[in-house]
Amino acid sequence: MPIGFDQETKEFHLYNGSLSYIIKILYTGSVGQVYCGAPLAPHRSYPFLSLTASGGVLHPDKSMARFEYPAFGTGDYRTPAFVPQFADGSTLTEPVYHSHRIYAGKPAIPGLPSLYTECTDEADTLELKLFDELFGLFIILYYTIFADLPAIARHSRFVNEGKEPLVLRKAMSLNLDLPDNNWRVISVSGAWAREFQIIESPLVAGFHGVKSAKGNSGHQQNPFLILKRPAADDSSGQALGFSLLYSGNFTASVEGDCYSSSRVQLGVNDETFSWKLEKGAFFDTPEAVLVYSENGLNHLSQVFHSLYQRRLARGIWRDAERPVLLNNWEGTYFNFTEQKLLAMASVAKELGIELFVLDDGWFGQRDNDTSSLGDWYADTRKLPSGIAGLAEKIITLGLQFGLWIEPEMISKNSRLFEQHPDWAIGVPGRPRNEQRNQYVLDMSRQEIVDYIAKIISDVIASAPISYIKWDMNRSITEAFSLALAPDRQSEFFHRYILGVYDLYERLTTAFPHILFESCAGGGGRFDPGILAFAPQGWISDNTDAVERLRIQSGASLVYPQSSWGSHVSAVPNHQTGRTTAISFRAMVAFFGDLGFELDPTTLSPEEKKQIATYIEFYKRHRKTFQYGRFFRLAAPDPALYTAWQASSEEESLVGFYKLQAQPNRAPVRLRLASLEPDALYTISLWEQGGFEANDRTYNCGLRGGDELMYAGLSLDTTYVTKQGDFFGEIFIIKKREEQEP
Ligand code: GLA
User: Fold this and answer.
1) CATH classification (class only), 316-441+464-501+511-624
2) Going along 111-237, which residue ranges are E strands?
């Protein structure tokens, strides 16, 4: 009984054994939120849960009621989920239940990314239709519950069946009114090269939230929030996660109100949005995903990981092991020749690298970041045989070939700008901001998307390319489109991102064999909207292994390791100046899609030997590193250590990373996750390319799953301490076939 409707009580119950979501048509016709959380018996009704303190289903003070999709202006003074403005200028509306449909499967959203099912058994959908009779506005609320996961996908469609156009001033994807405020709020926030820092705060009265107004989801905030009970941690306790499948201006907020209840909202940022809805037209919001966990944040993250890995990412790369790559960016920056690239690629081949990626600087006359974006033809000064010639040579060396592009951008100093200065976003008569010496193309215009689709397709089709890195190195300023009427200018940001999705859709459909990796100066547009097209992303320009521990831990709250581009770079690190051992850099980058971003021709023979063994080790365990179930383990002292685990059917891999050496500490125990308590496991250590310390192997051997989970892996930190700062181990844990009698 995934979605039931009780005619008598007017309750809808979305149920799948791990989650109940109950809503009710109130006597006024509005739709009320009754319950969202751990599963309740599906065939009962829950009248007491919809009562307010005063005993009524709807308190005279509507701010005390819990609504599914609240309107503004009739007594609920909290933030509304939507605001239409009708032809008479009024914004007052109180749509009521009109009808509903329940069916197996899940619909797609035209022009927007969404989760999908492969067969209709995987999910059921409720479409709840509300109606404002006076102006003929229909609102359809979509709820899809997945059969095997405590997750619900939601979005809303507005249909104008009135006689006049109307304007949507706000249209949230999800609203959730919760009966209490005993939560802590977690978001991932940051900046360029410091993405995905975990921020936690108590939920008190007032607003908590994150948003973007930059045209991309941004380095600063991510379209994602968690509410967790104060005592909940990675391995236990209740939590709700909310994620928006959108790459443009978003908002994700929680309002703690005066009655100690809370209202969560996710959607397009209404500060930079409105949408004119002509008579007969409809508007779809992006999709939001709600996940519930009764068992802590690791479980919550794993549900997001399964959804985003298996039912958001598409195409052959969804399940395929990702190649180990060499990207030339930090190795050469703009300063390379074909000869240099081939020399790098030939060492890469020796090391076991599978894909060579040529980053920025191959087109126009781009020797630095001041020119050529938009001129997507090879610079024959650097590449005499063009992209096709270089790609052929790389393939002859036994590697695949990948290429960097930044299709949404235009340099003032470019042929494209000479021909089409009006294609760059800007407000006529006003100065335009140049960021990183570049402007942004107006992707809300069809002819520009068409042009870029054609020119990039020509580049890709001209050479044997297996991989594309799609960058976006600046955000939008002076938002305005020459193609939009004055009363539609505030549609610009949403139309921009629809144009980007359209371009992605065309290129990924035309070149289904290509692995797309997204990037926006690192993690400036690392969100589920983009993951629908590019199953992996360059998560941060910061390649420092110590910083990466924090960044990848933060990203793991919602995004699976198969989506993290994770590179080993040279030391001293180019972003932090820090020096760490190559083995430490590698063992951090193993969790994710391993790459190298350095000049391999400068490596010593010893380093080459080591790296070759690392890559060989990674390939043997790659399926677990990329697709295994991921756990943030409770490190004994989080200020000093980080610990991760990835588990597949074959094995569990545990990374234990020390940040800072401190003498004279007692052994610590690291409790592992998700083993069978009655089974026996063999533990071995990754050799780290011949690294030896006398007492390193003390922890290897046979252990019970119960011991490893309940007591923990006992780590003698004495030898670990003596290795200095930034030292780690990878433990390989395999179930012994032959178990104890
Ligand atoms: C961005 C990316 C880098 C690199 C440069 C090239 O900063 O994040 O990885 O591709 O652009 O200009």
Assistant:
1) alpha beta
2) 123-132, 137-146, 151-160, 166-178, 184-189, 197-202, 206-211, 224-228
Residue 471 beta carbon below 6 angstroms from any ligand 1 atom = yes
Q: Which two tokens stand for residue 256?
A: 């703690």
Q: Which residue from 369, 471, 542 has its CB within 8 A of the most atoms of ligand 1, so it is best to mutate?
A: 471
Q: How many CA atoms lie within 13 A of 673 on its CB side?
A: 26
Q: Does 593 qualify as catalytic in the annotation?
A: no
Which CATH code for domain 632-735?
2.60.40.1180
CA distance 707 to 740: 14
SS3 content of the chain, % helix, strand, coil (to 5): 25, 30, 45
One of 442, 541, 593, 599 is an active-site residue; which one?
541
Q: Say whether 471 is catalytic.
A: yes
* Selection from 708, 704, 698 nearest residue 740 by Cα: 704
Q: Please, which residues bridge with residue 565 across strands?
A: 538, 593
Instruction: Say yes or no: CB of residue 362 within 6 Å of ligand 1.
Output: no
Could you tell me the end-to-end alpha-carbon distance of the chain, in angstroms, rounded to an integer? 42
Q: Is 538 in the pocket of ligand 1 (CB under 6 A)?
A: yes
Locate the domains of the chain by residue range.
3-310, 316-441+464-501+511-624, 632-735
294: alpha, beta or left? (left if phi > 0; alpha if psi -120 to 50): alpha
DSSP 47: G
Q: Helices (H) and strands (E) in the chain — how many of each?
A: 13, 38
Ligand 1: centre distance to CA 333 (Å)? 9
Which residues are CB-neighbours of 44 under 8 A, at least 6 positions away? Answer: none
Catalytic residue chosen out of the listed positions 234, 471, 527, 593: 471
Q: Is 45 helix (H, G, I), strand (E, B) or coil?
A: coil
CB atoms within 10 A of CB 485: 9
Strand order in the sheet with 3-6: 3-6, 11-15, 20-25, 31-37
Q: Would the CB of 329 count as within 6 Å of ligand 1? A: yes
Task: Give the separation between CA 157 and CA 275, rounded to whole angstroms.
Answer: 13
* Residue 142 phi, psi (nearest 5): -105, 130
Low-confidence ranges of the chain (pLDDT < 50): none
Give me the CATH topology for the region 3-310: Beta-galactosidase; Chain A, domain 5 (2.70.98)
How distant is the alpha carbon of residue 109 from its chain centre? 19
Contact 336, 328 (CB under 8 A): yes
Amino acid in position 112:
L
* Residue 197, beta-bridge partner list: 189
CB 24 within 8 A of CB 4: no
Query: Is 624 in contact with 650 (CB distance < 8 Å)?
Result: yes
- Give the global pTM: 0.97
Predicted local confidence at residue 311, as pLDDT? 98
What's the pLDDT score for residue 53? 57
Q: What's the CA gap between 587 and 35, in Å, rounded?
A: 43
What is the model's pLDDT at position 486?
98
Question: What is the residue-wise DSSP string for 140-154?
Answer: EEEEEEESSSSEEEE
Q: Tens of pLDDT along 169-195?
A: 999 999 999 999 999 999 999 999 999
**Contact criterion met (CB below 8 Å) for 301 and 558:** yes
* Burial of 321 per CB tally in 10 Å (0-12, 13-18, 19+): middle
Q: Is 360 in the pocket of ligand 1 (CB under 6 A)?
A: yes
Does the beta carbon of 521 sit less than 6 angstroms from any atom of ligand 1?
yes
Contacts of residue 191, defined as CB under 8 A and 6 or more positions apart, other chains included, come to: 219, 220
For residue 689 the two structure tokens come to: 């390319």
Give dist(CA 627, CA 339) in Å, integer. Answer: 36
Interior angle at CA 384, CA 379 and CA 390, nearest 5: 95
